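Session log. Operator J.P. requested a structure for one protein chain; no other inputs attached. Running the standard single-chain path with C-alpha cell output.
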Amino acid sequence: MGWFSDVIGRLGGRSPAPEPALELPAPPTSTEILASVERVEQQIEGRVPPAVTARVHRITGTVEEMVPRLDRLGGGSQQAHTVVATATSYLPEAVGAYLRLPRDFADRRVVAQGKTSLMLLCDQLDLLGVTLDKISDAVSRADAAALVAHGAFLAEKFRDSSIALDPGAGQGTAQPPSGSTSDPGRLEAP
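Structure written below.
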C-alpha cells in the first residue's frame, strides 16, 4: 500500500498495516571470526607462493591476537569493525579471488598498473597487515596508558597512608638463615 492509500484508510477508520520488522544479522562471534581466518589458512596451504603465505600468516596472527581484545575497542568502533571485516570479508575475498585464477596467469600476466595478480594480492595483504598492526598498537598503547594511570592513582592514594613504608624499611631486620625450615612468615630472634 502507498502513502495515499494509508491516508484514505485512516480516514475510513482502518489502521495502517504494520511495517515489517527489519532484522539485522547478529555480529559474528569470536569463534566465527577465528574460524574464518582458519579457513583462509587452510585454503592457501600448498596453493600459494611463500610471499602470500607469510602475509596471510601475519594477518591471521594479528586477528587471533586481537579477537580477545575487541571489547576494548567498543562494539560500534571503526577499529573493531575493521578487524572483524578483515577476518570475515576482506581477507577471504582477496585470497579467494586470487585462488580462482589459473596459477600461471595469476603469477605472470600483468593485469593492472603494471602488476600481476600475485603482486596486487601482496599489496592488498600488506595494506591489511599494516592496518591491523596500527589497530593492535593503539589498543596496546591504551592498555599501557591505563596501567600508568592506575600506578599514579595508587601512588597518590597511598602516599600519606599509615601503611606507607619508609624507603629504608626492612633494612636491619633479622632474616631467617638460609636453609631454615621454620615458618617463612615468622621471624626468629638472632
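Operator note: The longest helix spans residues 117-158.
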